[in-house]
Write a structure and sequence with these properties.
Layout (H helix, E strand, L loop, with lengths): L2 E5 L7 H11 L9 E4 L6 H9 L3 E10 L9 E3 L4 E8 L5 E6 L5 E3 L8 E4 L5 E5 L5 E6 L4 E5 L5 E8 L3 H7 L2
Antiparallel strand pairs: 1-10, 2-3, 3-12, 4-8, 5-10, 5-12, 6-9, 6-11, 7-8
This protein binds fe (ii) ion (FE2).
Fe (ii) ion (FE2) binds next to loops.
Length: 176
């Protein structure tokens, strides 16, 4: 209902692709949200190849560089995109989870933010499931389901998130 683990071979992602993405984005600043990009002729080869080989992407992507947020209230939100495909670039692993919450335990609130996502508050959010993005796999996630990043490590964590133009269920069919 919330996520599906994919092998790197399913998305034809090689170590060479990873090193090439790392060289482009290694100096990116840490933001509380992903840096959004449109896919253009000068975008990294791997990102253009993904777009050209799979008809599920909307022509944009984000790069996330994240850090420890354990001293903050987890920002539970839904994205302004139906689904995402998260692909590790550097130092992803234990110490950072994407956690999904039962919507019936949440109240939607309006907080202006650059990524146009919807935020939720709860006194007692009920967790439904979680995954850890590691360096050896990718994750398809249902970003219309309320979720939050919960990070306790100070890893220099960098990943690519491709934006999908189809629903999570349609993307599951694509990768079945
Ligand atoms: Fe999100």
């Amino acid at each position: 209902m919330c996520y599906k683990k994919l092998s790197l071979s399913q998305i034809a992602y090689t170590e060479e692709d990873r090193l090439s993405l790392f060289s482009v984005y290694k100096d990116m600043k840490q933001l509380g949200y992903g840096q959004y990009y449109l896919i253009q002729d000068n975008s990294p080869d791997y990102i253009q190849r993904l777009r050209d080989s799979m008809p599920i992407f909307d022509g944009s992507y984000s790069i996330h560089r994240t850090t420890d947020n354990s001293n903050q209230l987890a920002r539970i939100h839904t994205d302004n995109r139906p689904a995402g495909l998260n692909i590790p670039i550097n130092d992803c692993g234990a110490g950072c989870d994407t956690v999904f919450y039962n919507p019936s335990t949440l109240t939607r609130i309006i907080i202006p933010n650059p990524s146009m996502s919807d935020s939720y508050l709860s006194n007692n959010p009920i967790e439904e499931c979680r995954f850890t993005l590691t360096m050896d796999s990718a994750y398809l996630l249902n970003t219309h389901y309320p979720h939050a990043r919960v990070q306790t490590s100070s890893n220099d964590r960098l990943f690519l998130s491709m934006n999908l133009c189809v629903t999570y269920e349609e993307a599951l069919e694509y990768f079945h």
